[in-house]
Specification:
This protein is 42% helix and 16% strand. The protein is α/β, with parallel strands linked by helices and 459 residues long. The two termini are 36 Å apart. The model has no long low-confidence stretch (mean pLDDT 90).
Amino acid sequence: MDSETLAQMRARYDSALIVGITREVTEHLRARILGEDDTPSVADLEPETVAAQVVAELERRFRPSLRPAINATGIVLHTGLGRALLPESGVRAIGDVARGYCNLAIDADAGARGHRDAHLEELICRLTGAEAATVVNNNAAATMLILNTLAEGREVIVSRGQLVEIGGSFRMPDVMEASGAVLRDVGTTNRVHLRDYESAIGDNTGAILRVHQSNYRIVGFFSEPSLEELVALGRRYNLPVIDDLGSGALVDLSRYGIEPEPMAQESMRLGADAACFSGDKLVGGPQSGVIIGRRELLERIKSNQLMRAFRVDKLTIAGLEATLKLFLNPATLEDTHPTFWMLSLTVDELDRRAQALARAVSDGLSAGASAGEGISVIDGFSQVGSGSAPAENLPTRLLAVQPGAISAGELASRLRAHEPAIFPRVHAGAVLLDPRTIQPDEDATVCDAIIRILTEAAE
């Protein structure tokens, strides 16, 4: 088969692969010819048409699996859509070190081997008040590494109400077991007292652990000791106190009208011996887990043989360093950091965006397509996401589309199949799109996609 289009594919794909896909396409055509339904036309059998099908099949199978998407759900830190948007400075930093060699683990002054922690440790310590720090590939790894280093084969005391399960069915008891530590839970789900911790301390106690509940809250008849009280207890019995902060925060979220999340600085101020938190949630960097604490304990953690298995690469370091530097001036975060820009948006600002989207969609629809469509702007809520401030709903304004020719579910499905994929919500027969998480330069793409899908459905 000779085709100019197909010839171009030879520059991208191996000849054997092209032959194999061509055979599959022709076998499918042969089956259609022999079948009673869906018989191909003469035009379907033209060489150029068959070649185009081969090219389309090659493109379908081998297009990038990980592709850009538009988040219209209103969930700022959407785990399924990649969590935090990296700031532009982080994107540039990753690109800079990805293009060539870099000083990842070499001391340029001494001309000798260095350590990759050197790129982040001083910055993290300045932001958190810690004596020392290191970074691993996520917060679960950070927790596991701390426990394995400080309490392998020994009991770790933790409140029963803090034995959380995070996304993907990863459970704190299982993480602790994998670390080699022995779980010793105390208290009840909703109430635990300091005396419960103290009664559990014995000869085989290795550490006291506090775990932020992250993706759920207990309200009502509930109490637990403060970190300050746990630290005092640990000092009395010479036991390290570990604070798993979950999402972790470097700024007070109450400035955005959101309930505060545990702050790394506060953990260090109150005397936790070691703490850990995610670098890719409220910090907003690439996926990572940050470990901070006393220098002596951090040196032991860095020397653990598991550290090599959990360490991060040059791209993560570059992106995280650039992101962390934005916190050196918290007053400008709304201008420099996508997560905090989205959290800072007011209802009035969101209403203007939603109204503009509604007008653009309404104006773009033909008379036939618009006859049965309902385009409106309604009240709604956004969420922080990724286990951060789970009880908080942020007021927003939503573009609501009630399609006439197709169902809301079908419209949402076609939006997800769009390039780039657009992920909305569906509720009460309407497709809902939240401008809080739709980036300003994506507005036109969203409008064009809705208009095209509804117009095609009405034809």
